[in-house]
Write a structure and sequence with these properties.
Radius of gyration: 34 Å
Distance between the termini: 65 Å
Bound molecules: 2-(butylsulfanyl)adenosine
Largest sheet: 5 strands, mixed
Structural class: alpha+beta
Strand content: 15-25%
CATH superfamily of the largest domain: DNA ligase/mRNA capping enzyme
Number of helices: 24
CATH class of the largest domain: Alpha Beta
Helix content: 25-40%
CATH topology of the largest domain: D-amino Acid Aminotransferase, Chain A, domain 1
Number of strands: 25
Shape: elongated
CATH architecture of the largest domain: 2-Layer Sandwich
């Protein structure tokens, strides 16, 4: 899919766009400090091309559409044969149209096609004299490039000596593999430099850098082999007649790296359809490659076909780049979340300003581990290069350091496990909760014992850690079979605290079903959903007997959530059975189970009309509660509203029937006033629900 071209409306906009594109292009070819990602650049150039098509007499000489490298690049080493660019296609249709027009031009179908990856690095010409690498030249403007011979010996795949003493020029792409890029940024930041935004920038910057205190390896992939002035005439003649695929085999034989040894090796095929098959294969392999590709290059394989097709001033007519969608975009790093996995690994995750990459909106990206954040010198508020290819999890490649404003903030690392509050083992690159696999257990038991669930006083995270570590508790039901002796055996557990804890556990057995459900931690059901489910089904038995359709009758549960709740309950069945056996209450006071299955579903959906002083009313509680309600948490207030027949909500709208506004109530009170919603004080509300207060 092609993203739309930038819209240029007048000559001034056109001139500005050309200037921006030239700057971006220069950055692209020289180690880059462009604020445009590839996609934005492509859009800009397509916009420029569209304007030029309408205004052919006003095309600026510096326009990127007519240029080879498209920008102000240094370079004074002339190329023996121009280093051309490639024309692009973006779809199978465009590709087929190109093959048809090429066939028309040469007077017959192309005999064979060579299909190979379009490597995302920068073009280089490597001149070998009698087998020895003497000169490295960048593409520059295609006619002359910059001498970067200082990089000789630092590029894997570009041997200092060929296997034969021949005089030839090898052309290809210098890039950094993912590993080399990571290493480059590590070295660079360790030497006080700013990280490179992506492997391409890193390769361009590294290739041109002289006098570095350190060496960063890069990788070369050849895609061309041609004679030089000093080449033996027989060899020159032979090279001139070789098909592209054979030239690549020859380059490999001489010791030059080619895509041949990778998963995306070049292949030679007979028809355009077969070429398309390989295009799709290479595209599918892209996400797993250890180096970047931004398309697939299809070439007429035979030298004779190439000669017949000829070249334009910018690109050969016998080759085309089938461009793949951009996999990188620049966006902002808004925050970092720390998530604890099943094994206790604490992994950072980037929260991004949503950005669309290849059709999906990306909001999160992996950051691997804390050391990675430090190594990449990432800061909150940074512009970051985000990479997403195929189904692979998006990753933050690096900050775009030159876009910093100085307002970026350091990323805070957690001092305690974000899930269970225990210490963190920071000994390895990947941080781990000291509770390891038990972290989840500690967190889930602490949650279950919390004030709004089973409300077991004296069972905080520290105590839970002790119980888990002592092997006394391995799930929620174990809590209810703890003995006095077991508790006394724990450190810092005296008789009084033991008795208090046992009493709190015993009291917890009487909590309503809604809270037991919440304590079980059924995925997708929080506190208010648990209350709705409990009120609807009234008993755990009725709930467990319900299928997805029956569960969907509960307000707020849709077709997606219902089956997952059924599955969760089935998974929790043994635990629920043990809780029941331990005497834990499994009923919701005041609720009646729905009519048995087979009844009228619509009646069930409507349910029994709610009774009580707040029947049918949506109530919002805000501010601090006082008087008789002072001790009630927000959750308990919501429970009270629902016991009184009302529906609790956290936001005020036209549908709100009543707002209980305590001290410090702010915007919700103001909104209620503006909408004319009835407002009551906590004291007035306490009178309304007096019968339900104990
Ligand atoms: S052939 C005369 N083959 O893509 C043909 N180029 O966007 C010129 N590139 O300038 C190039 N992989 O820097 C060719 N397999 C490949 C390539 C390739 C990457 C680069 C090259 C070229 C640019 C055009």
């Amino acid at each position: 899919m092609t993203t739309p071209a930038a819209v240029i409306v007048d000559a001034a906009g056109y001139a500005e766009a050309v200037e921006e594109a030239v700057k971006a292009s220069a950055a692209y070819y020289t180690g880059g400090t462009s604020a445009l990602d590839d996609d934005a650049y492509d859009r800009l150039v397509r916009g420029i091309a569209a304007w030029e098509a309408e205004n052919p007499d006003r095309v600026l000489p510096g326009s990127p559409t007519g240029k080879v490298a498209g920008g102000a690049v240094d370079g004074d080493v002339p190329h023996t044969v121009a280093m051309l660019s490639l024309d692009n296609v973006f779809s199978a249709e465009e590709f087929t149209a190109w093959t048809v027009s090429l066939a028309r031009r040469i007077g017959h179908d192309v005999t064979r096609f060579s299909v190979e990856p379009k490597l995302d690095g920068l073009a280089i010409a490597a001149r070998y004299t009698r087998g020895r690498l003497g000169r490295l030249v960048t593409r520059g403007d295609g006619t002359a490039g910059e001498d970067v011979s200082h990089a000789i010996g630092t590029v894997d795949g570009l041997p200092v000596r060929l296997t034969e003493p021949v005089t030839v020029e090898v052309r290809g792409e210098v890039l950094m593999t993912t590993g080399q890029f990571e290493h480059a940024n590590e070295l660079r930041t360790a030497h006080g430099g700013q990280p490179f935004a992506n492997p391409r920038n890193a390769a361009a910057g590294t290739l041109r850098a002289r006098d570095r205190a350190y060496t960063v390896p890069m990788t070369f992939f050849g895609y061309g082999l041609l004679p030089l002035a000093g080449t033996d005439p027989d060899l020159a003649a032979r090279l001139g007649e070789l098909a592209h695929g054979d030239l690549m085999s020859e380059a490999a034989r001489l010791g030059v790296n080619t895509p041949g040894g990778t998963a995306v090796s070049g292949v030679v095929v007979d028809t355009a359809e077969q070429a398309l098959v390989r295009v799709r294969e290479i595209a599918a392999l892209r996400a797993e490659l250890p180096f970047g590709i931004d398309g697939i290059v299809v070439k007429a394989d035979l030298a004779a076909d190439q000669r017949a097709a000829g070249s334009g001033s910018r690109a050969p007519r016998w080759a085309i780049a089938y461009k793949l969608p951009a996999v990188e975009k620049i966006t902002r790093l808004l925050g970092v979340e720390w998530n604890v996995g099943r094994t206790g690994i604490i992994a950072p995750r980037a929260v991004l300003e949503p950005v669309e990459i290849d059709g999906s909106v990306i909001t999160y990206a992996t950051l691997h581990n804390p050391a990675d954040i430090t190594r990449r010198d990432l800061r909150l508020g940074d512009h970051v290069m985000v990479h997403r290819a195929g189904d692979v999890i998006p990753r933050v490649e690096a900050p775009v350091a030159h876009l910093r404003t100085g307002e970026e903030q350091p990323i805070a690392f957690p001092a305690a496990c974000p899930r269970c509050g225990s210490g963190i083992d920071t000994g390895e690159q990947r941080w781990r909760c000291e509770n390891g696999r038990n972290c989840h257990l500690v967190a889930s038991l602490s949650y279950a014992a919390g004030r709004d669930q089973l409300d077991i006083e004296g069972l905080g995270a520290t105590r839970v850690v002790q119980l888990v570590e002592a092997g006394l508790v391995s799930d929620l039901a174990d809590l209810f079979t703890l003995t006095r002796d077991q508790l006394l055996s724990l450190e810092r557990m005296g008789e009084t605290s033991t008795d208090n804890l046992l009493a709190a556990i015993a009291a917890a057995k009487g909590q309503p079903l809604s809270r037991v459900l919440c304590a079980l931690g059924v995925r997708g059901t929080g506190r208010s959903m648990s209350r709705r489910i409990a009120r609807h089904f009234a008993t755990m038995d009725a709930l467990r007997a319900a299928d997805a359709a029956a569960i969907q009758q509960v307000e707020g549960i849709g077709t997606e959530k219902a089956p997952s709740i059924v599955a969760e309950l089935a998974e929790l069945a043994p635990l629920i059975d043990r809780l029941t056996a331990a005497g834990v209450n499994m009923a919701e006071p005041g609720a009646t189970p729905p009519a048995p299955a087979g009844g009228d579903a619509d009646d069930e959906a409507a349910g029994e009309p709610a009774a009580g002083p707040l029947a049918g009313m949506t109530v919002v509680v805000t501010g601090a509660m006082t008087g008789a309600l002072e001790k009630l948490s927000r959750n308990q207030m919501n429970e009270l509203v629902e016991r009184a027949g009302g529906r609790s909500s956290s936001s005020v709208s036209g549908k709100t029937g009543l707002v209980v506004a305590g001290e410090g109530a702010g915007s919700k009170r103001a909104k209620a006033e503006a909408l004319g919603v009835r407002l009551v004080t906590p004291a007035e509300f306490a009178v309304l629900v007096a019968d339900l207060l104990d």
